[in-house]
Amino acid sequence: MRWCCRGLALAMSLAACGPFAGGGEGPAPVAGDRAPTTDGAPAPAATTAREHAPAGAPPRVAARPRIVILGDSLTAGLGLPTDEAYPARLQERIDRGGWRFEVVAAAVSGDTTAGGVRRLAWALDGDVRLLVVALGGNDALRGLPVGQMRDNLAAIVDEAARRGVRVLLAGMEAPPNFGPAYASNFRNVFRNLAASRDLTFVPFLLEGVAGMPELNQADGIHPNAEGAEGVAAHLWVALEPLLDGLGAEPSGPPAVIRDQP
To answer: Is 244 in the active site?
Structure first.
């Protein structure tokens, strides 16, 4: 029942994730990709990778080593100001802890794992120390074959490893309408990939937030500011232990982060 409720909440969450930001992301399809959803919900411009790098422009050079979150509208913070989305909340924790990292939300609404493969080379350009992979929800919403999602996620993870970039994998849940076998196979893609590649793994990105009305916006779909803080707190448990090993020494004595879980 718990997994069913999570799946229903995820289906609601991703139904409004919308098309690719900026329209017209045009490379040839990667395994399992289909036409993006067409409900017209745009990604917040300030939080999308495309807004940082117009087509043909060189990638922005970060002043600090980067932690890149490759995701969809859940990462873009659809419906929230940029400084209330969960990547910004993670940045606050990093800054208060004294680490010299910049969190970059490489997020495009409606994106699938196939879209993540297409965008990966740009996302990993520059001094990227950690890639957080937060994709898969739109694959589930569309009922894409789990084998194709597995191949796409493996391609993302393996390319990051080839470049010497560490990976934190955040799992997702499939909605129940495709049946228990699909949901189980979908879930196991993340678990098996994390185990086979020895990745830091968060089983469900929206743990404790999905399906909780008080933590979501008025539409009951996307996390509100409190919900985004909850997502950040959940990821922080896995992210914080990695920071000292990413090669950017703290710039000073860390502040006390009183809102840690």
So the answer is: no
